[in-house]
Amino acid sequence: MTATIIDGKAFAAKVRAQVAEHVARLREEQGVQPGLAVVLVGEDPASQVYVASKGKQTVEVGMASFEHKLPADTSEEVLLNLIRQLNADPNVHGILVQLPLPGHLNSELVINSIDPAKDVDGFHISNVGLLGTGQKSMVPCTPLGCLMMLRDHHGSLAGMNAVVVGRSNIVGKPMAQLLLGDSCTVTIAHSRTRDLPSVCRGADILVAAVGRPEMIKGDWVKPGATVIDVGINRIERDGKTRLVGDVDFAAAATVAGAITPVPGGVGPMTIACLLANTLTACCRALALPEPKGLTV
Ligand SMILES: NC(=O)C1=CN([C@@H]2O[C@H](COP(=O)(O)OP(=O)(O)OC[C@H]3O[C@@H](n4cnc5c(N)ncnc54)[C@H](OP(=O)(O)O)[C@@H]3O)[C@@H](O)[C@H]2O)C=CC1
Ligand SMILES: Nc1nc(=O)c2c([nH]1)NC[C@@H]1CN(c3ccc(C(=O)N[C@@H](CCC(=O)O)C(=O)O)cc3)C=[N+]21
Protein backbone atom coordinates (compact mmCIF):
# COMPACT_ATOMS: atom_id res chain seq x y z
CA MET A 1 0.00 0.00 0.00
CA THR A 2 1.22 3.51 -0.73
CA ALA A 3 -0.24 6.42 1.19
CA THR A 4 -1.91 9.45 -0.34
CA ILE A 5 0.41 12.41 0.21
CA ILE A 6 -1.51 15.29 1.74
CA ASP A 7 -0.14 18.34 -0.04
CA GLY A 8 0.00 21.04 2.64
CA LYS A 9 1.80 23.43 0.34
CA ALA A 10 -0.99 23.36 -2.26
CA PHE A 11 -3.69 23.46 0.43
CA ALA A 12 -2.00 26.46 2.06
CA ALA A 13 -1.91 28.27 -1.29
CA LYS A 14 -5.69 27.78 -1.57
CA VAL A 15 -6.26 29.11 1.96
CA ARG A 16 -4.09 32.15 1.21
CA ALA A 17 -6.04 32.79 -2.01
CA GLN A 18 -9.28 32.75 -0.01
CA VAL A 19 -7.77 35.13 2.52
CA ALA A 20 -6.50 37.44 -0.25
CA GLU A 21 -9.93 37.58 -1.85
CA HIS A 22 -11.59 38.53 1.43
CA VAL A 23 -8.89 41.09 2.21
CA ALA A 24 -9.38 42.73 -1.21
CA ARG A 25 -13.13 42.97 -0.56
CA LEU A 26 -12.55 44.47 2.91
CA ARG A 27 -10.29 47.13 1.46
CA GLU A 28 -12.69 47.97 -1.36
CA GLU A 29 -15.96 47.92 0.56
CA GLN A 30 -14.89 48.98 4.04
CA GLY A 31 -11.64 50.80 3.40
CA VAL A 32 -9.84 48.70 6.00
CA GLN A 33 -6.62 46.75 5.66
CA PRO A 34 -5.96 43.92 8.13
CA GLY A 35 -2.54 44.26 9.79
CA LEU A 36 -0.25 41.70 11.44
CA ALA A 37 2.58 42.63 13.81
CA VAL A 38 5.34 40.08 14.38
CA VAL A 39 7.75 40.56 17.25
CA LEU A 40 11.10 38.77 17.20
CA VAL A 41 13.48 38.99 20.14
CA GLY A 42 17.03 37.86 19.44
CA GLU A 43 18.80 36.59 16.36
CA ASP A 44 17.98 32.88 16.17
CA PRO A 45 18.58 32.12 12.44
CA ALA A 46 15.63 29.69 12.08
CA SER A 47 13.27 32.23 13.69
CA GLN A 48 14.55 34.94 11.37
CA VAL A 49 13.73 32.76 8.35
CA TYR A 50 10.17 32.11 9.63
CA VAL A 51 9.57 35.75 10.43
CA ALA A 52 10.78 36.85 6.98
CA SER A 53 8.56 34.25 5.32
CA LYS A 54 5.52 35.33 7.40
CA GLY A 55 6.13 38.98 6.48
CA LYS A 56 6.38 38.18 2.77
CA GLN A 57 3.17 36.11 2.74
CA THR A 58 1.33 38.74 4.80
CA VAL A 59 2.06 41.37 2.14
CA GLU A 60 1.19 38.93 -0.67
CA VAL A 61 -2.39 38.51 0.63
CA GLY A 62 -2.78 42.30 0.79
CA MET A 63 -2.36 42.80 4.53
CA ALA A 64 -0.09 45.25 6.30
CA SER A 65 2.97 43.67 7.92
CA PHE A 66 4.71 45.26 10.89
CA GLU A 67 7.98 43.63 11.94
CA HIS A 68 9.59 44.46 15.27
CA LYS A 69 13.07 43.03 15.74
CA LEU A 70 14.48 43.52 19.20
CA PRO A 71 17.95 42.60 20.48
CA ALA A 72 18.39 39.39 22.49
CA ASP A 73 19.02 41.34 25.72
CA THR A 74 15.75 43.31 25.50
CA SER A 75 14.22 43.83 28.95
CA GLU A 76 10.76 42.57 29.84
CA GLU A 77 9.67 46.15 30.43
CA VAL A 78 10.62 47.22 26.89
CA LEU A 79 8.89 44.19 25.36
CA LEU A 80 5.72 44.71 27.43
CA ASN A 81 5.68 48.37 26.41
CA LEU A 82 5.85 47.42 22.75
CA ILE A 83 2.96 44.97 23.21
CA ARG A 84 0.92 47.66 24.97
CA GLN A 85 1.55 49.95 22.01
CA LEU A 86 0.50 47.25 19.51
CA ASN A 87 -2.61 46.43 21.60
CA ALA A 88 -3.67 50.08 21.29
CA ASP A 89 -2.83 50.45 17.57
CA PRO A 90 -6.02 50.31 15.45
CA ASN A 91 -4.01 49.32 12.35
CA VAL A 92 -2.77 46.17 14.08
CA HIS A 93 -5.37 43.36 14.20
CA GLY A 94 -3.02 40.49 14.96
CA ILE A 95 0.07 40.24 17.19
CA LEU A 96 2.53 37.33 17.16
CA VAL A 97 5.49 37.13 19.51
CA GLN A 98 7.90 34.56 18.05
CA LEU A 99 8.70 31.74 20.48
CA PRO A 100 10.87 30.62 22.14
CA LEU A 101 11.84 33.88 23.86
CA PRO A 102 15.32 34.33 25.38
CA GLY A 103 15.50 32.74 28.83
CA HIS A 104 15.43 35.96 30.88
CA LEU A 105 11.92 36.78 29.61
CA ASN A 106 8.78 35.27 31.14
CA SER A 107 6.90 33.90 28.09
CA GLU A 108 3.66 33.36 30.00
CA LEU A 109 3.60 36.93 31.21
CA VAL A 110 4.47 38.26 27.76
CA ILE A 111 1.86 36.17 25.92
CA ASN A 112 -0.84 37.04 28.45
CA SER A 113 -0.15 40.75 27.98
CA ILE A 114 -1.35 40.54 24.35
CA ASP A 115 -4.95 41.67 23.82
CA PRO A 116 -6.76 38.29 23.48
CA ALA A 117 -8.70 39.65 20.49
CA LYS A 118 -5.37 40.25 18.71
CA ASP A 119 -3.75 37.00 19.88
CA VAL A 120 -3.57 35.32 16.45
CA ASP A 121 -1.43 32.49 17.88
CA GLY A 122 -4.27 31.58 20.26
CA PHE A 123 -1.80 31.21 23.15
CA HIS A 124 -3.37 33.74 25.56
CA ILE A 125 -4.86 32.05 28.62
CA SER A 126 -8.33 33.37 27.77
CA ASN A 127 -8.21 31.87 24.26
CA VAL A 128 -6.97 28.59 25.72
CA GLY A 129 -9.95 28.58 28.11
CA LEU A 130 -12.43 29.48 25.39
CA LEU A 131 -11.14 26.68 23.14
CA GLY A 132 -11.25 24.20 26.02
CA THR A 133 -14.90 25.02 26.71
CA GLY A 134 -15.94 25.02 23.05
CA GLN A 135 -16.47 28.78 22.80
CA LYS A 136 -15.45 31.11 19.98
CA SER A 137 -11.74 31.91 20.31
CA MET A 138 -8.54 32.43 18.40
CA VAL A 139 -7.38 28.90 17.49
CA PRO A 140 -3.62 28.09 17.45
CA CYS A 141 -2.38 28.08 13.85
CA THR A 142 -0.56 24.73 13.67
CA PRO A 143 -3.41 22.63 15.14
CA LEU A 144 -5.93 24.58 13.03
CA GLY A 145 -3.95 23.79 9.88
CA CYS A 146 -3.82 20.10 10.84
CA LEU A 147 -7.58 20.04 11.46
CA MET A 148 -8.30 21.67 8.09
CA MET A 149 -6.26 18.98 6.29
CA LEU A 150 -7.95 16.20 8.27
CA ARG A 151 -11.46 17.52 7.59
CA ASP A 152 -10.61 17.96 3.93
CA HIS A 153 -9.36 14.39 3.67
CA HIS A 154 -12.01 12.63 5.78
CA GLY A 155 -15.07 14.83 5.93
CA SER A 156 -16.37 13.91 9.38
CA LEU A 157 -13.84 12.80 12.02
CA ALA A 158 -16.55 11.62 14.43
CA GLY A 159 -15.75 8.41 16.27
CA MET A 160 -12.20 8.07 14.96
CA ASN A 161 -9.40 7.14 17.36
CA ALA A 162 -6.91 10.01 17.40
CA VAL A 163 -3.51 9.81 19.09
CA VAL A 164 -1.56 13.02 19.59
CA VAL A 165 2.09 12.44 20.51
CA GLY A 166 3.25 15.55 22.39
CA ARG A 167 1.51 17.64 25.05
CA SER A 168 2.93 21.13 24.53
CA ASN A 169 0.72 24.17 25.00
CA ILE A 170 1.38 25.33 21.46
CA VAL A 171 0.73 22.11 19.53
CA GLY A 172 -0.20 18.90 21.38
CA LYS A 173 -2.84 20.18 23.82
CA PRO A 174 -4.75 22.46 21.44
CA MET A 175 -4.58 19.73 18.75
CA ALA A 176 -6.21 17.30 21.17
CA GLN A 177 -8.93 19.89 21.98
CA LEU A 178 -9.75 20.38 18.31
CA LEU A 179 -9.93 16.63 17.65
CA LEU A 180 -12.18 16.22 20.68
CA GLY A 181 -14.32 19.06 19.36
CA ASP A 182 -14.72 17.06 16.15
CA SER A 183 -15.83 14.03 18.21
CA CYS A 184 -12.69 11.90 17.96
CA THR A 185 -11.75 9.59 20.81
CA VAL A 186 -8.52 11.30 21.81
CA THR A 187 -5.38 9.96 23.47
CA ILE A 188 -2.51 12.31 24.34
CA ALA A 189 0.87 10.57 24.57
CA HIS A 190 4.13 12.05 25.88
CA SER A 191 7.58 11.13 27.14
CA ARG A 192 6.18 9.15 30.09
CA THR A 193 3.72 7.13 28.02
CA ARG A 194 4.12 3.35 28.41
CA ASP A 195 4.54 1.36 25.21
CA LEU A 196 4.18 4.27 22.80
CA PRO A 197 4.39 2.01 19.70
CA SER A 198 1.26 0.11 20.72
CA VAL A 199 -0.59 3.31 21.65
CA CYS A 200 0.22 4.67 18.17
CA ARG A 201 -0.94 1.44 16.52
CA GLY A 202 -4.44 2.12 17.84
CA ALA A 203 -4.69 5.42 15.97
CA ASP A 204 -6.90 6.07 12.96
CA ILE A 205 -5.43 9.58 13.11
CA LEU A 206 -1.85 9.90 14.36
CA VAL A 207 -0.47 13.39 15.01
CA ALA A 208 3.25 13.57 15.77
CA ALA A 209 4.42 16.73 17.58
CA VAL A 210 7.48 15.55 19.47
CA GLY A 211 10.51 17.37 18.08
CA ARG A 212 12.54 14.17 17.60
CA PRO A 213 13.66 13.40 14.05
CA GLU A 214 11.94 10.33 12.55
CA MET A 215 11.09 8.88 15.96
CA ILE A 216 7.74 7.39 14.87
CA LYS A 217 8.51 4.20 12.96
CA GLY A 218 6.60 2.59 10.10
CA ASP A 219 5.44 -0.36 12.19
CA TRP A 220 3.90 2.01 14.78
CA VAL A 221 1.35 3.06 12.16
CA LYS A 222 -1.96 1.24 11.80
CA PRO A 223 -2.51 0.19 8.18
CA GLY A 224 -4.62 2.81 6.42
CA ALA A 225 -4.24 5.43 9.19
CA THR A 226 -3.86 9.15 8.51
CA VAL A 227 -0.52 10.51 9.75
CA ILE A 228 -0.01 14.23 10.41
CA ASP A 229 3.65 15.06 10.95
CA VAL A 230 4.10 18.37 12.77
CA GLY A 231 7.82 17.93 13.48
CA ILE A 232 10.36 20.27 11.92
CA ASN A 233 13.86 18.96 12.56
CA ARG A 234 17.05 20.03 10.84
CA ILE A 235 19.51 17.14 10.56
CA GLU A 236 22.78 16.41 8.78
CA ARG A 237 22.56 13.52 6.31
CA ASP A 238 24.93 12.64 3.47
CA GLY A 239 26.87 15.81 4.25
CA LYS A 240 23.79 18.00 3.70
CA THR A 241 21.41 19.78 6.04
CA ARG A 242 17.91 18.34 5.64
CA LEU A 243 14.51 19.04 7.09
CA VAL A 244 12.74 15.95 8.45
CA GLY A 245 9.63 15.37 10.52
CA ASP A 246 8.98 13.34 13.66
CA VAL A 247 7.85 10.39 11.51
CA ASP A 248 10.01 8.03 9.46
CA PHE A 249 8.25 9.15 6.30
CA ALA A 250 9.54 6.53 3.85
CA ALA A 251 8.51 3.63 6.09
CA ALA A 252 5.22 5.16 7.30
CA ALA A 253 4.13 5.98 3.74
CA THR A 254 4.09 2.26 2.88
CA VAL A 255 1.60 1.57 5.70
CA ALA A 256 -0.51 4.72 6.16
CA GLY A 257 -3.60 5.62 4.15
CA ALA A 258 -2.53 9.27 4.01
CA ILE A 259 0.43 11.24 5.31
CA THR A 260 1.74 14.80 5.37
CA PRO A 261 5.31 15.35 4.16
CA VAL A 262 8.02 17.52 5.71
CA PRO A 263 8.65 20.00 4.24
CA GLY A 264 5.44 20.88 2.41
CA GLY A 265 2.91 19.61 4.97
CA VAL A 266 1.93 21.24 8.24
CA GLY A 267 4.49 24.11 8.03
CA PRO A 268 2.93 26.03 5.12
CA MET A 269 -0.56 25.48 6.62
CA THR A 270 0.61 27.07 9.88
CA ILE A 271 1.48 30.33 8.13
CA ALA A 272 -1.71 30.26 6.02
CA CYS A 273 -3.74 29.85 9.24
CA LEU A 274 -1.87 32.76 10.82
CA LEU A 275 -3.07 34.94 7.96
CA ALA A 276 -6.59 33.49 8.25
CA ASN A 277 -6.59 34.27 11.99
CA THR A 278 -5.46 37.84 11.34
CA LEU A 279 -8.34 38.30 8.90
CA THR A 280 -10.77 36.77 11.40
CA ALA A 281 -9.46 39.06 14.16
CA CYS A 282 -9.89 42.10 11.91
CA CYS A 283 -13.48 41.16 11.02
CA ARG A 284 -14.36 40.57 14.69
CA ALA A 285 -12.76 43.87 15.74
CA LEU A 286 -14.90 45.76 13.24
CA ALA A 287 -18.05 43.65 13.82
CA LEU A 288 -18.01 42.60 10.14
CA PRO A 289 -19.04 39.14 8.88
CA GLU A 290 -16.25 36.59 9.28
CA PRO A 291 -14.89 34.60 6.34
CA LYS A 292 -16.35 31.09 6.18
CA GLY A 293 -14.25 27.93 6.41
CA LEU A 294 -11.17 29.67 7.78
CA THR A 295 -11.70 28.87 11.44
CA VAL A 296 -13.31 26.01 13.42
N1 LIG B 1 5.03 22.82 11.45
C1 LIG B 1 4.85 23.81 12.28
O1 LIG B 1 4.25 24.79 11.94
C2 LIG B 1 5.35 23.72 13.68
C3 LIG B 1 6.22 22.71 13.99
N2 LIG B 1 6.66 22.54 15.26
C4 LIG B 1 7.51 21.39 15.50
O2 LIG B 1 6.76 20.40 16.17
C5 LIG B 1 7.56 19.69 17.08
C6 LIG B 1 6.96 19.78 18.48
O3 LIG B 1 6.94 21.12 18.88
P1 LIG B 1 6.50 21.56 20.37
O4 LIG B 1 5.18 20.97 20.68
O5 LIG B 1 6.71 23.00 20.45
O6 LIG B 1 7.64 20.78 21.20
P2 LIG B 1 7.90 20.63 22.77
O7 LIG B 1 9.32 20.31 22.91
O8 LIG B 1 7.32 21.77 23.51
O9 LIG B 1 7.04 19.34 23.15
C7 LIG B 1 7.40 18.07 22.73
C8 LIG B 1 6.47 17.03 23.31
O10 LIG B 1 6.90 15.76 22.87
C9 LIG B 1 7.02 14.89 23.97
N3 LIG B 1 8.13 13.97 23.78
C10 LIG B 1 9.45 14.25 23.73
N4 LIG B 1 10.17 13.13 23.58
C11 LIG B 1 9.30 12.11 23.55
C12 LIG B 1 9.43 10.70 23.44
N5 LIG B 1 10.62 10.12 23.31
N6 LIG B 1 8.31 9.96 23.45
C13 LIG B 1 7.10 10.53 23.57
N7 LIG B 1 6.92 11.86 23.67
C14 LIG B 1 8.00 12.63 23.68
C15 LIG B 1 7.27 15.77 25.18
O11 LIG B 1 6.81 15.07 26.31
P3 LIG B 1 6.91 15.66 27.82
O12 LIG B 1 5.82 16.68 27.91
O13 LIG B 1 6.66 14.48 28.67
O14 LIG B 1 8.29 16.25 27.94
C16 LIG B 1 6.46 17.00 24.83
O15 LIG B 1 5.14 16.89 25.30
C17 LIG B 1 8.95 20.28 16.93
O16 LIG B 1 9.66 19.52 15.96
C18 LIG B 1 8.69 21.67 16.38
O17 LIG B 1 9.76 22.16 15.62
C19 LIG B 1 6.23 23.37 16.26
C20 LIG B 1 5.38 24.40 16.01
C21 LIG B 1 4.91 24.68 14.68
N1 LIG C 1 4.62 32.52 18.36
C1 LIG C 1 4.96 31.52 17.54
N2 LIG C 1 4.03 31.02 16.69
C2 LIG C 1 4.38 30.01 15.83
O1 LIG C 1 3.52 29.54 15.05
C3 LIG C 1 5.72 29.52 15.84
C4 LIG C 1 6.62 30.09 16.74
N3 LIG C 1 6.21 31.07 17.59
N4 LIG C 1 7.89 29.64 16.82
C5 LIG C 1 8.39 28.63 15.89
C6 LIG C 1 7.29 27.70 15.41
C7 LIG C 1 7.65 26.95 14.15
N5 LIG C 1 6.73 27.42 13.15
C8 LIG C 1 6.78 27.09 11.80
C9 LIG C 1 6.03 27.73 10.84
C10 LIG C 1 6.15 27.43 9.50
C11 LIG C 1 7.04 26.47 9.06
C12 LIG C 1 7.18 26.18 7.61
O2 LIG C 1 6.61 26.86 6.77
N6 LIG C 1 7.98 25.17 7.24
C13 LIG C 1 8.24 24.80 5.85
C14 LIG C 1 9.73 24.71 5.58
C15 LIG C 1 10.51 25.91 5.91
C16 LIG C 1 12.01 25.67 5.80
O3 LIG C 1 12.45 25.22 4.73
O4 LIG C 1 12.70 25.93 6.79
C17 LIG C 1 7.64 23.44 5.55
O5 LIG C 1 7.45 22.66 6.49
O6 LIG C 1 7.40 23.15 4.39
C18 LIG C 1 7.77 25.80 10.01
C19 LIG C 1 7.63 26.10 11.35
C20 LIG C 1 5.90 28.34 13.70
N7 LIG C 1 6.15 28.52 15.00
UniProtKB/TrEMBL annotation:
Residues 6-121 form the Tetrahydrofolate dehydrogenase/cyclohydrolase catalytic domain. One of its GO terms (biological process) is tetrahydrofolate interconversion. Pathway: One-carbon metabolism; tetrahydrofolate interconversion. GO terms for cellular component: cytosol. Signal peptide: none annotated. NCBIfam families: PRK10792.1, PRK14186.1, PRK14188.1. InterPro entries: Aminoacid_DH-like_N_sf, NAD(P)-bd_dom_sf, THF_DH/CycHdrlase, THF_DH/CycHdrlase_cat_dom, THF_DH/CycHdrlase_CS, THF_DH/CycHdrlase_NAD-bd_dom. It comes from Gemmobacter aquaticus. Belongs to the tetrahydrofolate dehydrogenase/cyclohydrolase family. Its EC number is 1.5.1.5, 3.5.4.9. The lineage of its organism: Bacteria, Pseudomonadati, Pseudomonadota, Alphaproteobacteria, Rhodobacterales. The keyword NADP applies. This is Bifunctional protein FolD. Catalyzes the oxidation of 5,10-methylenetetrahydrofolate to 5,10-methenyltetrahydrofolate and then the hydrolysis of 5,10-methenyltetrahydrofolate to 10-formyltetrahydrofolate. The gene is folD. NADP(+) binds at G166, R167, S168, I232.
